[in-house]
């Protein structure tokens, strides 16, 4: 009887210790989860006009000159018609734009990455850009040739963001525990994020060339994994009304969806007035976008923009 009581007490004591250990581990895990949650993406909004008007005219002019955006466009030979359209349209508004190709293409000037793998192309393009332009540009915008970008809206969105901080912006997507910026809407990195990424490119444990997995993941997810090790986390870009400004669809598709879902509010239900990108564009659609965004004007109507971004020196932009 005494032996049974002793065994019972030992069981109770061991059970109590086990429960305490599980509870403690649970708290450690929960605490760690909270820290990770703190770093998860949040919603960054563009500045409002009232904030800009508080800045003096001289400061506004200085700001417009200080924002320099370097554009990276990843292309393949099969993208030649899109490549031509991108070159003739929105990239003229970048402070500098360069095309990074999977192989040498005689038709257009590009930087040959000598690989068909999109993640290796992206890595090499970021390294090239950082090594060559780290002292000349404070923001780096990467896009596919199916993307149309309004660079002035990008600069406006970034106006109150400090490039010496680790920004990683665009249209965020959640995949399991990973939060990443989808390449379809374009990816923006500050110079600080570029610096951190560059420091990891030669550390395969943290930023592997092939991902080190049985299955292959997309290049935008691979980028997010590397940046996460560098303490850089995805942030969704929105306007003051909470609408996305980096879009992964074309304007036409957005309007079609709005007509179905919001027939009485097609415009309001479609897109942000401060949209930065649209994706899934054909070459003809890019030229139409260029006409609508930059060339079409209502005679006699004055746009009271609080800030003007001057075109790059020597640019033939619209």
Automatic annotation (TrEMBL):
Subcellular location: Membrane
GO cellular component: membrane
Positions of transmembrane segments: 12-30
Location (main, coarse): membrane
This protein's record includes keyword Transmembrane: yes
GO biological process: protein O-linked glycosylation
Origin: domain of life: Eukaryota
InterPro entries: C1GALT1/C1GALT1_chp1
Sorted UniProt keywords: Membrane, Signal-anchor, Transmembrane, Transmembrane helix
Record's bilayer topology term: Single-pass type II membrane protein
Family: Belongs to the glycosyltransferase 31 family. Beta3-Gal-T subfamily.
Protein name (record): C1GALT1-specific chaperone 1
Species of the source: Daubentonia madagascariensis
Top-level taxonomy: Eukaryota, Metazoa, Chordata, Craniata, Vertebrata
């Amino acid at each position: 009887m005494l032996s049974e009581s002793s065994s019972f007490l030992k069981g109770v004591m061991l059970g109590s210790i086990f429960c305490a250990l599980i509870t403690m581990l649970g708290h450690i895990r929960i605490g760690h989860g909270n820290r990770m949650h703190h770093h998860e993406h949040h919603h960054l909004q563009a500045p409002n006009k009232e904030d800009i008007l508080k800045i003096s005219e001289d400061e506004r002019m200085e700001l417009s000159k200080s924002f320099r955006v370097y554009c990276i466009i990843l292309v393949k030979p099969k993208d030649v018609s899109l490549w031509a359209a991108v070159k003739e349209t929105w990239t003229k508004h970048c402070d500098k734009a360069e095309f990074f190709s999977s192989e040498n293409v005689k038709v257009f000037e590009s930087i040959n990455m000598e690989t068909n793998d999109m993640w290796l192309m992206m890595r090499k393009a970021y390294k090239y850009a950082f090594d060559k332009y780290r002292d000349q540009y404070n923001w780096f915008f990467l896009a596919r040739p199916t993307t149309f970008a309004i660079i002035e809206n990008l600069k406006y969105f970034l106006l109150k963001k400090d490039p010496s901080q680790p920004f990683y912006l665009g249209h965020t997507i959640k995949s399991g525990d990973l939060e990443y910026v989808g390449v379809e809407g374009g990816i923006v990195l500050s110079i600080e994020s570029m610096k951190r990424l560059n420091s990891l490119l030669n550390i395969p444990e943290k930023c592997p060339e092939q991902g080190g997995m049985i299955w292959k993941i997309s290049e935008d997810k691979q980028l997010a994994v590397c940046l996460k090790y560098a303490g850089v986390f995805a942030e969704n870009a929105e306007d003051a009304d909470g609408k996305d400004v980096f879009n992964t669809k074309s304007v036409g598709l957005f309007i079609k969806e709005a007509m179905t879902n919001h027939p009485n509010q097609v415009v309001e239900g479609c897109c942000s007035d401060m949209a930065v990108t649209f994706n899934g564009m054909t070459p003809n659609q890019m030229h139409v976008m260029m006409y609508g965004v930059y060339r079409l004007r209502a005679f006699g109507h004055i746009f009271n923009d609080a800030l003007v971004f001057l075109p790059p020196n020597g640019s033939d932009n619209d």
